[in-house]
Amino acid sequence: MLDAIVAKKKITVEQEKKYLSLKEIQKDISFGKFALSKVMRNSPWSLIAECKLQSPSKGRLCTNYTVLELAKIYEKNGAMALSIHTDEHFLGNLADIALVKEITKLPVLRKDFIIDEYQIYQSRRAGADAILLIARILSPAQLKEYLHMAWEIGVDCLVEVHDEKDINAVNDTRAELIGINNRNLKNFTTDVQNTLDLVKYCDRNRTIISESGIKNREDIERVKKHFIRGVLVGEGLVKAANIAAKTRELSLVKGF
């Protein structure tokens, strides 16, 4: 499934370039302020709350709220940052980033499959404070190149890893934000144990978070014991009976 998504993404990006060239985009961006890394660096615990409406493996996840409504709930209940999907497989839209930025002061991460430098500048033009770089779909050279491209325009990068090989590639860069994904890319199941198994290979001087499969305070306490500084949660929030309460729970809001 991942290979199919990436193949389609390459076609989509080439089509987008015909509509608006890279040079035109580069002329129309303002420099970012590394908002995501600043927030996470200054907080002992960070919840990156994801406005996730759909999953390519599970279908529609949330029908009661829009992306904007989820963003408002998350901000009011302790989230430190927001993750906005912009890929069609997740019912995402690039325009959602600007809309969310109008109603919230939280840093916004663009969640997509970044496979071309065009998308880095496109992300900043749309208003993203940070982008996701998936180590699995990039060569080590691409990873380094894209990190520096993003940093040159004030955009943070959350680098996603799935195994020890990915981590070795990331450790060879200056990436500050590392996300250990708990999703098995072969069968799409999730297991928080993946974070506990892989964190030992990570450079502890970086900010490490756990992604996918986080459901409750128990999961939070498990990863916190292993120097994890935060979590990125989508499905665990949008499928909760009370999204506001679940956000407070995973944000470690005092008194919950």
UniProtKB/TrEMBL annotation:
Q: Which Pfam family, any one of them, does this sequence belong to?
A: IGPS
Identify the metabolic or biological route this protein is part of. Amino-acid biosynthesis; L-tryptophan biosynthesis; L-tryptophan from chorismate: step 4/5
Q: Which InterPro entries would you find in this protein's record?
A: Aldolase_TIM, Indole-3-glycerol_P_synth, Indole-3-glycerol_P_synth_dom, RibuloseP-bd_barrel
Sorted alphabetically, the keyword list is:
Amino-acid biosynthesis, Aromatic amino acid biosynthesis, Decarboxylase, Lyase, Tryptophan biosynthesis
Which molecular function terms from Gene Ontology are attached? Answer: indole-3-glycerol-phosphate synthase activity; phosphoribosylanthranilate isomerase activity
Look up the domain of life of the source: Bacteria
Entry EC number(s): 4.1.1.48
Which intervals hold domain Indole-3-glycerol phosphate synthase?
2-250
The record's annotation in CDD domains points to: IGPS
The reactions it catalyses are: 1-(2-carboxyphenylamino)-1-deoxy-D-ribulose 5-phosphate + H(+) = (1S,2R)-1-C-(indol-3-yl)glycerol 3-phosphate + CO2 + H2O
- Set out the biological process GO terms recorded for this chain's protein: L-tryptophan biosynthetic process
The entry assigns this protein to a family as follows:
Belongs to the TrpC family.
Please name the NCBIfam families in this protein's record.
PRK00278.2-4
Q: What is this protein called?
A: indole-3-glycerol-phosphate synthase
What is the organism of origin for this protein?
Answer: Selenobaculum gibii
Q: What is the lineage of its organism?
A: Bacteria, Bacillati, Bacillota, Negativicutes, Selenomonadales
